[in-house]
Amino acid sequence: MRPAWRLALPWLLLLAVGLGALALRFGLVESSAIGALCSDRHAPWWCTWREWLVYGFLHQIYGVLALLAAAAALFSRRQALAWLGAALAVFALQLYCVEPAALALLLACLRLLRLQADARRAPIEQHRQREQQVQSQP
Predict the structure, then answer these.
(1) Pick from 23, 35, 65, 138: most CB atoms within 10 A?
(2) φ, ψ (nearest 5 deg) of residue 101
(3) What pLDDT score does 97 carry?
(4) Is the residue at 135 inside a domain?
(5) What are phi and psi of 67, to 5 degrees?
(6) pLDDT for residue 54 is more than 80
(7) Cβ 93 vs Cβ 22: under 8 Å
(8) What is the pTM of this model?
(9) Per-residue CA distances from 60 to 6, 36, 43, 93, 97 (Å)
(10) Do 14 and 90 meet the contact criterion of CB atoms below 8 Å apart?
(11) Per the domain annotation, does 126 fall within a domain?
């Protein structure tokens, strides 16, 4: 894979997560027809999943999970963990968990950007930068 696509892939996947969450929100949660169908006594089996989805955003579960993943990404050097925090935050933003998800999205995206920038730099350049720093005399 070319380096430009390798850098863009996590961001494109975040866009896909956002579109998927948007489809869930408008297609499953906010649809009055689906709500009426699921309130019926003989509701389809997937209405239980819909109820759990609604329960998750009513209790800010998605936002808290996004914050936990973003915080874990700050102490880890794994791009996948930073991406997971950002993806959970995008999902939580679409499903009404705005306050914790906004902070989680900021932290996770900044961490992902830093990890991508560090990965692009050659290891020799990292050591050269430290060697060029001037030390003051005590």
Answers:
(1) 65
(2) -70, -35
(3) 94
(4) no
(5) -65, -40
(6) yes
(7) no
(8) 0.83
(9) 33, 24, 26, 10, 6
(10) yes
(11) no
pLDDT at residue 130 greater than cutoff 60: no
Which residue bears the tokens 């109820």?
51
Distance from C-alpha of 89 to C-alpha of 55, rounded to nearest angstrom: 17
Query: Would you give the DSSP letter of residue 25?
Result: I
Residue 54 structural domain: 8-117
Q: SS3 of 3, please?
A: helix
Query: Does any domain span residue 43?
Result: yes
Question: How far apart are alpha carbons 37 and 32 in whole angstroms?
Answer: 8
d(CA 57, CA 25): 11
> In the predicted model, is pLDDT for residue 126 greater than 60?
no
* Total number of domains constituting the chain: 1
Q: Which amino acid is at 28?
A: L
CA atoms within 13 A on the CB side of 135: 4
Q: What is the pLDDT of residue 125?
A: 57
Q: Is 102 contained in some domain?
A: yes
Q: What is the largest CA-CA distance in the chain?
A: 80
